[in-house]
Amino acid sequence: MKKTITTLFVATCSFIPPIAVQASELPAISLKSLAKQSNIYVGAALETRHLKEPEFAKTFSSQFNQLTPENEMKWVNIHPQRDRFDFSKGDELVAFAQQHNMQVKGHTLVWHIQNPDWLTQKEWTAPELEKVLEEHIKTVVGHYKGKVKYWDVVNESFNENGSYRETLWYKVLGERYLELAFKFAHEADPEAILFYNDYNNEGMGAKSNAIYRKVKGMVEEGVPIHGVGFQLHLMGEHALSEQDLARNINRLKHLGLKIHFTEIDVRIRDNASHFSLDAQARIFGRLMDFAIYYPEIDMYTTWGVTDKYSWVPGWFTGYGRALMFDENYQAKNAFKAVYSSLLSASKGEFSYQPPISQ
Ligand code: G3I
């Protein structure tokens, strides 16, 4: 069932040509304005340091209406010592979001990476670690109550083969650390919308099946989980399996869960031709088609704004250029593809149907 367009919005601008243009030449009608017509938040991950660059702040605030802290709400930064929290950077990001009428998704309350030594270098008993987890989640979520509406509560609990990652949390608390985390977050802010988040979980396979089984059990048990995040760190040379994506979305939506596209980037080889940029654009655009088609998908977040600050080159040697804006803040074909999908929806001309609709 397609999303209902809140108001039929006939865009008056003709879209930017399929060549990169300066962000200042972006269409008169912003990406976020069009996305709002389809009840979708378009967002990006970033750090406070990025906002100090005027072109970054201008591009982000003019086109996006959702913010995810890339690193500054993770344990190592927000809870650096057992008895000390540091909300300074998170507060700066939330203040920017409030100033620009953006939603914030807190990232992330429980993960196995970017944890401080006081947490990882100690042998914890289960009762001790449960108490530490409860104190962390309730302090952080409580601090942002009413300001951060969405949370990545638990991040990346499963291995590719569907087994549980042997993380600190799993080893000491067992698989019920997930239920505990969601319970603590809900108790801290009953209005918050709570997600499980992972990568390589968008299709059909051992990992997404394990996640489906787990969240199905949590829903049936009445655990306050509201959605699943597909990070979508993709490669331009691998086409989307639209059939598997549709199948996975369908089974999750039948649990009453939302789906968020939480960390989209589509990396391409450094020496790749413009054909790769077109392939990248097709993936970005098709993901937005899914978001427009499924009312359950109401957040489309890229993991960064500009190629200039993307995490990809530092982690995938020989790859980069993974986002919608290049290192000079020029809108790429990926932006054009996403914009075009939203523009067609705003005009009532959206026609995409996933290969499996139910
Ligand atoms: O802040 C320190 C700085 O003080 C120090 O000088 C510098 C050099 O050592 O490191 C800085 O910390 C880095 C941090 O990013 C902030 O820039 C860490 O070394 C670096 O490991 C960290 O990388 C982050 C990565 O998660 C950690 O695994 C990336 O920026 C961030 O984009 C990435 O994001 C994750 C999501 O949270 C979860 N999903 C996957 C995604 C990509 O890995």
Automatic annotation (TrEMBL):
Pfam families, alphabetized: Glyco_hydro_10
Keywords: Carbohydrate metabolism, Glycosidase, Hydrolase, Polysaccharide degradation, Signal, Xylan degradation
EC code: 3.2.1.8
Class in the EC hierarchy, top level: hydrolase
Annotated catalysed reactions: Endohydrolysis of (1->4)-beta-D-xylosidic linkages in xylans
Domain GH10: 25-341
Record carries keyword Signal: yes
Keyword Signal tagged: yes
Active site, renumbered: 263
InterPro entries assigned to the protein according to its UniProt record, in alphabetical order: GH, GH10, GH10_AS, GH10_dom
Signal peptide: 1-23
Family affiliation: Belongs to the glycosyl hydrolase 10 (cellulase F) family.
Name of this chain's protein: Beta-xylanase
Organism encoding this protein: Vibrio plantisponsor
Taxonomic placement: Bacteria, Pseudomonadati, Pseudomonadota, Gammaproteobacteria, Vibrionales
